[in-house]
Specification:
CATH superfamily of one domain: Nucleotide-binding domain of ferredoxin-NADP reductase (FNR) module
Distance between the termini: 35 Å
Structural class: alpha/beta
Radius of gyration: 19 Å
Strand content: 25-35%
Order of helices and strands: EEHEEEEHEEEHEHEEHEHEEEHEHH
Oligomer: single chain
CATH architecture of one domain: 3-Layer(aba) Sandwich
Number of strands: 17
Strand order of the largest sheet: 12-11-10-9-13-14-17
CATH class of one domain: Alpha Beta
CATH topology of one domain: Rossmann fold
Helix content: 25-40%
């Protein structure tokens, strides 16, 4: 069992967990992830390690409650435990002194972009960060990104905060202003990552994305996280999760991620129904 040291919501349905996992904290590198299982009946889901503290023996994950398991996880609080936390898994981010780099996080993808931006800064790069969200209330890790950036920008789709527009529009503006950009990292929803790749492609800017296919075991055995890169099959769990954005087959990735939509929807509906029954039972107990 892995004890939750602290749990705090950063935005609606987005929660930060500090988890006691000293061996993982000691070994993890930027870009790697863990696979968790909440209980004996739970599914296995991958979550990127956003940060770690070797001295305290903790790792940090940031979770957006979308499906049944992530919503169930976000019900946990400090002092609760998670049954399995396996990792670190995946290849770490390739870090070198590129020159000027841009790290882009879309939504909760910022939590994944953050550790790699830290590593790029430590390697001596000029780090620009673009932190995107649909609206102001969903912006996360703004101060943390600023602290490790030479230049930091926030974008919101609705214009409620920062630059009014998408992260791709801000990236295009930086390019149009004559900034020589040597490397771009983009992490977020699939359409956003694909759009970033199309912005950088004409300029020949090396661009990397962290892919989020369906994953089960995280060791390359199940084949669930298969992706097509440069026309060849790769496994995101052992060959990635980061790949050359200009070589990724984003259509294949999108189609594969939709395969279990109906099952995921049914599972979430059953979980929501059970939660309502539990609340009603608590009310009856309080009144009796």
């Amino acid at each position: 069992m892995y004890k939750i040291i602290s749990a705090k919501f950063l935005a609606e349905d987005i929660k930060r967990f500090d988890i006691e996992a000293p061996k993982i904290a000691k070994k993890r590198l930027a870009g790697q992830f863990v696979i968790i299982r909440l209980d004996d009946y739970g599914e296995r889901i991958p979550l990127t390690i956003a940060d770690s503290d070797i001295e305290k023996g903790i790792i940090t994950i940031i979770v957006q409650g979308i499906g049944k398991t992530t919503k169930q996880l976000n019900l946990l609080e400090s002092g609760d435990s998670i049954m399995d936390v396996v990792g670190p898994l995946g290849l770490p981010s390739h870090i070198e002194k590129f020159g000027t780099t841009v790290s882009i996080g879309g939504g909760v993808g910022t939590a994944i972009a953050y550790p790699t931006a830290v590593a790029l800064k430590e390697a001596g790069n000029h780090v620009i960060t673009i932190n995107g969200a649909r609206t102001k209330d969903l912006v996360i890790l703004e101060e943390e990104m600023k602290a490790i950036s030479n230049e930091s920008y926030v974008t919101t789709d609705d214009g409620s905060y920062g630059f009014h527009g998408f992260v791709t529009q801000k990236l295009q503006a930086l390019i149009d202003e004559g900034n020589k950009i040597d490397f771009v990292l983009a992490i977020g929803p699939i359409p956003m990552m694909k759009a970033v790749a199309e912005v950088t492609r004409p300029h020949g800017i090396k661009t990397v994305v962290s892919l989020n296919p369906i994953m089960v075991d995280g060791t390359g055995m199940c084949g669930g996280c298969r992706v097509i890169v440069d026309g060849k099959s790769q496994f995101a769990c052992v060959d990635g999760p980061e790949f050359d954005a200009h070589l990724v087959d984003f259509k294949n990735l999108t189609d594969r991620n939709k395969m279990y939509n109906d099952f995921e929807k049914n599972s979430l509906e059953k979980f929501a129904h059970k939660c309502q029954l539990d609340k009603q039972a608590e009310r009856v107990k309080e009144l009796s």
